[in-house]
Design a protein that fits this description.
Chain lengths: ~250, ~280
Amino acid sequence: MSKPTVVIDDVHIHYRVVLGAGIGSAAGALRSLVSGKKPSQVVKKVHAVRGVSMVAYEGDVVGLVGRNGSGKSSLLRSIAGLQKPSQGDVYTSSQASLLGVGAALNKSITGNRNITLGGLAMGMTRDEIEELRPSIIDFADIGEFIDMPMGTYSSGMQARLRFAIAAARQHEILLVDEALSTGDTEFRRRSQAKIRELAADAGTVFLVAHGHNMIREVCNRAVWMDKGIIRLQGDTQEVLDAYEADMEDKKKS
Amino acid sequence: MTSTSNAQLVDQYGLTSVSQTAPLSEYLRDTWKRIDFIKELANARSTQQYSDSFLGRLWQLVTPLLNAAIYFLIFGVLLGTRKGIDNFPAFLVAGVFAFNFMQTTITASANCIPKNDRLIKAIHFPKLVLPLATAVNQVQQYFISLIVLMIVAVATGEPLTWMWLALPVALLLQFGFISGISLIVARWGARSRDITQLLPFFLRTWRYASGVFFSIAIFTSKFPGWIGKSLKYNPGAVYIDLIRDSLMVSIHTDLKIWIAGVVWAIVFLIVGLVYFYRGERTYV
């Protein structure tokens, strides 16, 4: 049996959603302060993931499917250590990385400087960045804009540069949220090919994708999430067939 | 799948929990490995701060000069707090610049975790990177102010003495202290936004208590007891004093103040690092 790389042990994730604390009137805030009562219904708890357990092994490419809000992205973030489970825990053989670096980039600086910034954010050294720079520029395909501030780019160009930087590095445990591969059709095709390439080289991959073709093509396992729990997991074909059948049923009713 | 079999796998293959924080020594090492990231974050921020203005980074020079001019007009000319101080312009500029640096660094630190919320949710890194990048960004600006300060000092007749060599020491101590206090404030700021409302009042009080535009030595001669002592040894006054002592021949600072500067720097740096580190898991 191959080596386990990710063990998800009964993970629950709660979000605190603040519904307008402080937006109310000053008088109301004062009243609740004086009465010592917390203003009611300001904080809502959302139970996004409700007890998920699974193990992924070296060589696994796991596809996560499910409707919006089923907890896929939350689960992905908890594997990367970017979302603290409110109960349960995730254990990994090495630090898992979420493919995506957009938040680290800065629109005031040039594309080239953003390559440096994004690379450093992902934990690369300056030497590694310089080595990869030509291929990043090549993949982003934004021509001479690379030396202009990123704020001057079209949204498609920004998306391309973001993806090119994020995909430059190899990861042992890679987490991909497909929402990342935006842009025109041509670039989407190229970025999906790149994700496949990364998945082939990584030890273990978790992939959230809305296009099931991609999952069928690259994943050896699939997990169907529904309202924060695993509805079904196993062979990709089986899980997707069941999920698609369920979606059809819901459409009809 | 039961939890026991999971636990066995975790043990057998030596997997580690993602929500566990590395020990302090390892955490500091990890942060040190990110030193290039810290510098690049700080640089990007400097570019961003001035990218929309016509004068651009020239403001880094103009802003402190304007500040010094206003304080000179109010406290030197109108209110006459210059009594008993030789070379009031250099005295004032040193105080204003040294305090402004501390004030802006603390204010920026209070916001550094909430402001980088998206980054924290996207990439895994020691969060200590964020207050440090904020501090580096502020130090870069402070250096420009310090060059202005030295020009003012020479232009107003201060001779270049061996004491100028003490300036880097005074600054290093000030950086140590301010980094420590910024780390404490950064953790508060991560927990509650209320701190950003309270800070301005605290900082204003502290400014008046630190002898930015009057001489604590002259002032405290009227308050010999604990009030005078606590004014004199408050870190704000201490570091301003050390900088003045380095650059101005008319200022003679007690060795005790230099020792206080060392003590404050070490104590706050250690307390700040430990306090910020302990909150690491709460920043996610």
